[in-house]
């Protein structure tokens, strides 16, 4: 689940805020309505058609005029004035034309992507605020960027959206560590014994700050890892950058294409000098690619850990046809997964996801929850708490009674 976190006051750093603003949602009150957005667009179009060169000044003027009509629209105009200043500073005439065709298609796909998966997930000022370098970063898939970016240790065995985001990502990881005292205690107590020495873990999971804490724990306990994302949308780019900066071979970025997705997994499955002996999978994609593309490497595997029910279903199918040649652990067999993660995580995320995607008040809406297992219980309870009228379907009589 992608969490667009805003810095807390603790991380209240202007530079970071500015650079990361396009990845963070604005508070509800500052978010422009469709009408305000179109005002900004209209002003931009007008200024372009009139060949207005001093955009900030003109937009400032327009802001003043509009303020007498509508304070919210004025805020949007003022925002344009501010962001245009940033843009004017950073875009030279030559760079404006660079990769124009590619940029157009990428901006189109970014818009499509934003529209399809989150209407509020990215700031409405994102296009305006991009610096020249950011334009490049967004227009070329990280996998095709030349020269290959390097971290401060001059390593290039990674592929992330923007290695410059590493410092912010490191702060996010440190913040997550504070909320994960169990794994941090394990890290501390087992560090000297190096119990994972010799483990070569290929990970394919959501990459967020909490996963980074897990990855760094594996490293501290002696494992070597290569990591990709199990989802084309959910990578926290700054966190991936922080891992890359530390030297972790991580191949992931948010809003990647299907081709990029499979390419990233492939980069983690095999290199000239490294083959995994463990796969930590979420959804079964890494396992699937390994079986399909590198069947000979299967015998190097000591085991597979599968995080999701979907992935486990795929493993059962392989097992039935005799193609599952290595032991596999179903994480959902662990009570701490089913009774905690399955219940509490969707309970936390369901409301946020619905709000981000529908941008509407939930109270009074009618929701149908299909299945009253752990996930269904969590979702139903959160929806009820938000004032939604909840219906449940269930085929198991016990679970059905629990829903009563
Ligand atoms: N655990 C997580 O964090 C998480 C996150 C996202 C999605 N999911 C997905 O949510 C789904 C449910 O997960 P869970 O952990 O609650 O599983 P579960 O097995 O605990 O619950 C599933 C429930 O659905 C009921 N059911 C099955 N078929 C049904 C049907 N046709 N009509 C109505 N009810 C039916 C079952 O009786 C059962 O009670 C899975 O597909 C899982 O992959 C889980």
Explain what the structure shows.
This protein has helices spanning 14-20, 34-49, 55-67, 71-90, 93-97, 100-117, 126-129, 132-139, 166-178, 181-190, 209-220, 237-246, 258-269, 285-293, 309-320, 335-358, 374-385, 397-403, and strands at 200-205, 224-229, 250-251, 278-281, 303-306, 328-330, 366-370, 389-393. By secondary structure, the chain is an alpha/beta fold. It has 3 domains: 9-142, no CATH class; 154-333, Adenosylhomocysteinase-like (Rossmann fold), CATH 3.40.50.1480; 336-403, Rossmann fold (3-Layer(aba) Sandwich), CATH 3.40.50.720. A 6-stranded parallel sheet has the order 3-2-1-4-5-6, sandwiched between helices. A two-stranded parallel ribbon has the order 7-8. Strand 7 (366-370), helix 17 (374-385) and strand 8 (389-393) form a beta-alpha-beta unit. Helix 9 crosses helix 11 (209-220) and helix 13 packs across helix 14 (285-293). The protein is globular, with a radius of gyration of 24 Å. The two termini are 29 Å apart. The model is unreliable at 1-37, 61-74 and 83-129 (pLDDT under 50). Bound molecules: nicotinamide-adenine-dinucleotide. Nicotinamide-adenine-dinucleotide (NAD) binds at residues 308-310, 341-342, 345-346, 370-376, 393-396, 399. InterPro entries: Adenosylhomocyst_ase-like_sf, Adenosylhomocysteinase-like, Ado_hCys_hydrolase_NAD-bd, NAD(P)-bd_dom_sf, S-Ado-L-homoCys_hydrolase_CS. This is S-adenosylhomocysteine hydrolase-like protein 1, variant 3. Keywords: Cytoplasm, Hydrolase, NAD, One-carbon metabolism. Belongs to the adenosylhomocysteinase family.
